Each structure stands twice: as C-alpha cells, then as structure tokens.
C-alpha cells in the first residue's frame, strides 16, 4: 500500500512538537491493522523520516502480512518489527525485553462478532489488556488504553457528559459484552495504576474516521461516504435518532500521543470533538450535502431482524474539556472530516 497524500497531509498538520517526546523511544502498538493503531504507527514512521526521531516500533498483530502491507511503504528504514500475537490467550510473545510506551488499541469491534461470539469479545478485551498492563508493569512503560464511549450506556442527562458520568447497560443483552468489558478494562487500568504505579491513561474514544480508513471498512460513516461519492441514496438501517459523538482520525491519534506523554495515571479522558456532535440522521444529511451536493437522498430501510447487532439509541453529548485542558486542540469538525475523507477515498480509487 503506497503512502497516501491525505494521510501525509494530516500528519504534517499535527506538527513536530507532538512527536518530540518519543525521540529514541521504543513503542509497542496493538491493533496495528485497524484504523487507529495503524495510523499511530504510520504517523510515527512519517515522524522518523521527517524529524529523524529514531523511534523503534513493535506491532502485535494476528496477521503479520496484513500489517506489513499497511506499513511497508511508510517504513523506509526498517523501524517496524511485527510479532504475531493472539491477545485472547493473554500471552505476550517473547522478544519484548523492554519498551518505553504501549498503545493498546486492539479489540473486537465488529457488531456481528459481538453478538455471535460474546465470550470471545469479553475475554479478548480483558486478557489482552491484562497482558499489556503486566508488560507495562514489568518494563516501566507508559501506556494508553483505548476504551469506548459505549461505556456510558444509556445515560439520562441534559447537557454535556463528563468522564465521571455513567449510565445503564443491560447485562442481559449479549451485545453488552463489548461495553461491559471496556468498563472492566478501565477498572483494571485504574487498579494497576493504584496498586503498581503503572503510568496508564484511558482514552474513551468517540466514533472515529478520516483519511487512512481501510478498504474493508464498513461502518456507517464509510457506508455514508461511499454512497454519497457514488451519487447513491444513503440508507439508514435505524431511524437515526442516536446522538453521535465524533472525532477526526488525525485528531484522535494526536490525543493518544498527548495522553502517552502527559496523561495522568489511572485517569480517563473523553476523546471527541464537541463541534461534531449530531444525530445519525443529521450526519447522513450533512454527508449528502458535503459529498454529493444534496443529490443523495436519505432512505430508511429498518433492519428489525438484525437490530440486536446495533447499539441501543443513546442521548449523549460528550465533553472534551478534560482532554483540552492538557493542550489538545481538534483540527476538523464533522463537515471538514467528511471533506478530507472524501478526498482520501477519491485518492484511493485513482
């Protein structure tokens, strides 16, 4: 996979100062074949080339060939080492004697698998996180754990939701294995910080997209964008009433790197752009206007049979104040995020 002009443009927009804390560092990244993990790796490799940082990167992946295909164009100096690892086993492969930082993004994110394999979803989250926390404990590495806004559940609150607010999750639903396991892993991170002094910060990530998404990406934001670019109708499988919280991919990576460098151990931080809060229906209408000049119509095709695979409707407006107080400044609101995504998708098509 060649270097994307849009990915490189996003990298440049983040600035040198974000990457300087990692000069000469060794960094372990999980989930490097997913959007966030791969972008963290790609940006660090671009930083090596641009700023001569000499960062050493070890990616823990299930599919080494897929990881190499994603990263090889960015890895001009052979700075990436791929280790095959099944985090569900709770075992870190031999070969990591030391590291300075850990970015743990790996998790089961497919709604279908969450429903059909709820045990795997829970076990992978817990065992993988425990293994990475043990590695951080053993090596003294700082760590950032990628959680999810789904931990908030159904929350009845007017105004913005801070990190200390939590709602109800129906544990009788197999789909709840994902948010409940994320809650458990957050608690585990806080416990390692308290009992062992592990420097782990927790990032509750909003829905994230942007330049760099994978060709196999099929989440709703990608479906909307591809439909609009093709001049096709945008199809909603729900009524689109859920309130969405979003963050542009480059801004999310900037948040994770900031938390690696400055995050307080055991603390949780919402990663969202408050200017990008909207309903799913509202987002569909924005995508139509931004990428098809309003030609794509919004069509409802309610999927009652597959409804168990969708997260329940939520009314949630996340606050990013805590993260912004660390110095994080997002660069792209929802319209700009889709404009950049559209440019990236056109680039990939050509």
From TrEMBL:
Domain NAD-dependent epimerase/dehydratase: 27-272
SUPFAM superfamilies: NAD(P)-binding Rossmann-fold domains (SSF51735)
Coiled coil: none
Domain of life of the native organism: Bacteria
Matches recorded under InterPro entries: Epimerase_deHydtase, NAD(P)-bd_dom_sf
PANTHER family xref list: DTDP-D-GLUCOSE 4,6-DEHYDRATASE-RELATED
Annotated family: Belongs to the NAD(P)-dependent epimerase/dehydratase family.
Protein name: NAD-dependent epimerase/dehydratase family protein
């Amino acid at each position: 996979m060649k270097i994307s002009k849009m990915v490189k443009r996003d990298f440049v927009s983040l600035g040198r100062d974000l990457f300087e804390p990692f000069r000469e560092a060794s960094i372990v990244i999980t989930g490097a074949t997913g959007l966030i993990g791969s972008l963290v790796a790609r940006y660090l490799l671009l930083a090596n080339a641009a700023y001569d940082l000499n960062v050493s990167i070890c990616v823990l992946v299930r599919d080494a060939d897929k990881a190499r295909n994603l990263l090889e164009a960015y890895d001009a100096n052979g700075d990436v080492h791929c280790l095959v690892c099944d985090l569900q086993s709770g075992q870190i492969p031999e070969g990591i004697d030391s590291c300075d930082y850990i970015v743990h993004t790996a998790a089961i994110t497919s709604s279908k698998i969450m429903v059909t394999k709820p045990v795997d979803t829970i076990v992978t989250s817990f065992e993988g996180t425990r293994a990475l926390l043990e590695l951080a404990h053993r090596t003294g590495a700082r760590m950032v754990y990628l959680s999810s806004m789904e931990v908030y559940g159904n929350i009845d609150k007017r105004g913005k939701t801070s990190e200390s607010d939590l709602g109800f999750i129906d544990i009788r639903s197999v789909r709840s294995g994902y948010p409940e396991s994320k809650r458990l892993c957050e608690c585990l991170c806080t416990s390692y910080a308290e009992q062992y002094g592990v420097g782990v910060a927790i990032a509750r990530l909003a829905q994230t997209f942007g330049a760099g998404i994978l060709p196999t990406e099929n989440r709703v934001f990608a479906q909307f964008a591809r439909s609009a670019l093709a001049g096709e109708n945008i199809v909603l499988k729900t009524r689109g009433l859920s309130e969405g919280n979003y963050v542009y991919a480059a801004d999310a990576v900037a948040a994770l790197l900031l938390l690696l460098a400055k995050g307080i151990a055991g603390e949780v931080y919402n990663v969202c752009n408050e200017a990008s809060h909207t309903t799913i229906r509202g987002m569909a209408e924005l995508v139509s206007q931004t990428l098809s000049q309003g030609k794509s119509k919004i069509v409802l095709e309610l999927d009652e049979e597959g409804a168990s695979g969708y997260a329940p409707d939520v009314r949630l407006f996340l606050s990013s104040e805590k993260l912004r107080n660390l110095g994080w400044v997002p660069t792209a609101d929802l319209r700009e995020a889709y404009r950049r995504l559209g440019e990236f998708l056109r680039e990939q098509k050509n």
